[in-house]
Structures
1.
Amino acid sequence: MPALDIVLVPALSDNYVYLLHDAASGATAVVDPGEAAPVEAALAERGWKLTHILNTHHHADHIDGNETLKAKHGATLVGPTAETSRIPDMDVTLAEGDTYDFAGHTIQVFDTPGHTTGHISLYIADSDALFPGDTLFSLGCGRMFEGTPAQFWDSLSKLRKLPDATYIYCGHEYTASNAKFALSIDGGNDALKARAKEIEKLRANGEPTIPSLLGQEKAINPFLRADDPAIAAAVGKPGADPVEVFAAVRKGKDNF
């Protein structure tokens, strides 16, 4: 089956919303519409009809467009089972191990708590696409608002197991600030230094740094490397359990 067409739609101040389009059926989904207007404009530009809304978690900057888009298009609203009480009017709820058929494309669901307790991430193997919401960013991860370090590290460990060729379509353009922090604790990483230069050029030209490639992130994202002795040493936790190292990396970024 041909891969989905995936369109990045900037929204709010630094959010990314995504349109997923199956050319054969005409089905179109939107992932985490924090506002409706940019989504409507992107749909109109392409002549696409919205059929599905996919949510990864309940934060307003990911769901505030739901009501308007659902009312206008009659779209099916899909989101995390664990956040049923926090996302109004969901038609379908999903949790760890579930799959969802979108126009013949199988969406695999992972529970990825940490940023919120009910957060899910969505993986579409035939399109090499991961939609981790605010669980995983390029060179970073989301703030730990509701979960624990153990939960968050487990969530990232799940995503890290996906194929290196997976593209990460995350929820925000935070890559430049994430790169500065990553360099502060892993400045000898040549791959990271090269990526940081690339990011600087992209942002200087007003271009997105997303999607990023999971294989590259595994080598340069400190939040995916809490079990790497070099990262443990860099945050003053040599020999510590990865959960403890992850907590230290997250605290370091919070205070950076």
2.
Amino acid sequence: MTEGVLYIASGKPFVKEAAVSAARLREFMPHTPVAIVTDVAGVKTAGTPFDQVIQADDSDRDFGDQIRYLEKTPFDRTLCLDTDIYLDAAVEDVFEVLNAFDIAAAHNQDGSAYEVSGVPDAFPEYNTGVVAYRMSPSFRAFLEEWRDYYTELASGENSQNQPAFRKALYESELRVATLPSEYNTMVRYPGHAKGPVKMFHGRLLDINSPGAGKYIDVPKAAATINSTEQHRTWTLLGGLQLHTDKRDSPLHKYRLRAQEHGIREATRRAISKIWSRTADDQ
């Protein structure tokens, strides 16, 4: 049973971005095989983070390429990543999910791109930037349905493949695992996390593409968001602003000590901590 990571990159800019993403992945998962499907000729494994290059000659350079190329994976169990995924932890445990499920993805943080008929609001749209799947006859049948719905639904501004993915998934017999948002956090939107965020989703290079542009420095955003593992939210007005749980704030801790030990003792301890930190910084 083989397991590995797959990138799909149509065009040279996306190959370059995939290399940035894969190099970061190598820091946490050095022994996990990495393959890339691309229509760019001459991409090599030597000097790159890719173990295998799979040539694609029928690219349309649109969101349909992902549907077309998922079945080109050389692995039995695959974690397919968009080229703009930035890892901040190892994620081999995603492969373990495929012991019990056929496919795994996280909810689309931006909600539904647009509504599709026959799918209730209670069944969410999943983001296809991080998709783990087990290759099987039922999964191949799902790909055919996804491709057909994409052909039917995608047009003009509504060119994304996620609405078709949602409809095909709802009608399929696949067992679907929902990944936590920490496995696909889109940093261009406000968000929430508890514990370490493992995969960040945001443009790593400044690429002119039909998808999202480069709105934020993803490595810096990842460092800020993962500076703590407690409950936190973030907003993007005036740059990324992190907001932590009030229960872990110094003021809240002071109030708890005051209730337990009295204001005088709580104040004494607070002043002692301040002096201690000042001395350490000198």
3.
Amino acid sequence: MMGTSVEIKIYNGYGHSKNLVVYGHVLKRKPKKASDFSKDGWKHTLSLLKLFFVRPVGSVRLRLHFYDQVIETIAEPDGFFKFKWASDIHLDPGLHDLKIGLVGKEELHGFTQGKVYVPHSTQYVFVSDIDDTVLISHSATVLRRLRELLIKNAHRRKLFSDHVLWYNLLSRSGTEMRHLNPFFYVSSSEWNLYDYLQSIFAHNKLPHGSFLLSHFKRWFDFFKTGKTGHDDKYRRISRLLRVFPKQKFVLIGDNSQRDPIIYAALAKDHPDRIAAIYIRNIKPKKAAITLQLFKNLQETEIQTCLFNTNREAINMLFPSV
């Protein structure tokens, strides 16, 4: 549903027949154009800042329609909502349509269309951080991170060399082209940046995946962007492990902040579910800490790798490429 002042924002859902989830926000703002994040100069800066000036509409009731099922929930005070349900019918792998609308708000009619992704039963699920893992973000330095956000549009943001090649190789690893491995991008970046990040990933032809981001921020917290509590990442990945109990997980991150600690904790708690951990060595001073965490996992069958360039990781997994 797109109105002049209210938007139900739906993020890509995921799951399987018995365990489906979709997230979103109810926001008060004017619709934006899809081209906003390809604009250059001050137009891009203005478009990005607007993402933090939207106002959430909280504590409203929403209704989800999925095939013949109807499910209701109430948005949290910050406008965030989550639907969790089991399908009444078997779902084939692929994208399935859904729609969500407000209940009891006659002046706001219609629905927002969304989708939920049911992956094929592949061998692996890949979970990747974004900032300083995929994108050069300088996330450990506030001013440099803000400069990347405010100055560079979605077409100018730089990825690490060979990153598109590496992730597309991973998406096809051990499976068929029509049954690609699912990707989940779990980040401390806020839901405000969802459209911006989607534009970057689509422009660079990175593997399609679901984004799991951090709590929505208002304009007065803009300078804290990317600084949401990282421990929440553990909870989000744990849920993925529960939703996809038959797949092995590969965790990819960097050592600029807390990825090594979070991933090591997940490996300790789920040693039979984590196949590998790959950490980009963004902070050489933290390399010893990362290697010590890896050493603690030596008694498991989990493959670990601290790498400086994507080519190192590619050569380890795909030596013939």
